[in-house]
Design a protein that fits this description.
This protein has five helices and five strands; from the N terminus they run αββαββαααβ. By secondary structure, the protein is an alpha/beta fold. It has a three-stranded mixed sheet with strand order 2-1-3, with no helix packed on it. Strands 4-5 form a two-stranded parallel sheet.
Length: 152
């Protein structure tokens, strides 16, 4: 039993001090930017960067909709930021659209487009967009598909 402390002392005397490995955290991170940008790229930014911080580094396309991304959103290392495109959906006027314009609506073919034109001639202008359901063949299902794309 007395031998163990001797070996321990000899071991400790011969050992050099141990340096604890210090894991130094990087002060930067990388994020990937794509979507409505001129060039997809990896950006090196400070840790805990927000979209507001990163935005000046991004080369945006003219069609970029940066309002869709919250400015204080914090990104992490290797996050991917997809800048959405502005989606301009033209409003088709039920009271003024041509036959061809009406046919661009989902679920409205030649016959339904003609019925809408006939309705305008016989009944008059639409008073609300829901009145389109007075047209034969256009019911709730079709209306729900086109309601965000029509106006008076």
């Amino acid at each position: 039993m007395k031998i163990y402390p001797v070996f321990l002392m000899l071991f400790l005397i011969g050992c050099q001090p141990l340096h604890i490995l210090e894991l130094k955290q990087s002060e930067t991170m990388r994020v990937h930017v794509s979507g409505a940008v001129l060039k997809e790229e990896w950006l090196e930014v400070a840790n805990f960067s927000t979209f507001e911080d990163i935005l000046p580094l991004i080369h945006l396309d003219d069609n970029a909709d940066v309002d869709k991304i919250h400015p204080t959103q914090i990104f992490r290392h290797l996050d991917r930021i997809i800048i959405p495109h502005i989606k301009e959906v033209p409003c088709i006027s039920l009271n003024h659209a041509t036959h061809e314009e009406l046919m661009t609506l989902t679920g409205i073919g030649q016959v339904s487009a003609q019925r809408i034109l006939d309705y305008r001639m016989q009944v008059g202008l639409f008073r609300k967009i829901e009145d389109i359901m007075n047209i034969k063949g256009i019911k709730e299902a079709t209306f729900s598909k086109i309601k965000d794309h029509i106006c008076l």
